[in-house]
Amino acid sequence: MKKIMTAHDEVMEKMPNLVKLINALKPKADTTQAGQKYQLAIDSLKQSNKSMMTWMQGFGSRFTADEMYERKALTEEKQQWLTEEKTKVETLRKEINARIKKAEQLLDN
Questions:
Q1: Among 8, 70, 78, 99, which residue has the fewest nearby CB atoms (within 10 Å)?
Q2: pTM
Q3: Mean pLDDT for the chain?
């Protein structure tokens, strides 16, 4: 649980940067071929935000606050869920980090 919450916190800290990147990309996005790459980056960042919100909602529906923050013992089924959720949040973290990096590189060019 601690690793999942650490990954969650790491990603949540990046959300303000994600919004800043979207706002920086918007003036460059248009329907031209050059502008489309900026729009794709915007769409990708927005999808990352949506994916994070969806994951948090799903995670919150599986575990109680006591299980998340107070280390309340988990049932065997919830132990299995925890393994699934760890994989999900790690994948999500990698995806968001990669999309942020790509957007930053696009803006640097």
A1: 70
A2: 0.88
A3: 95
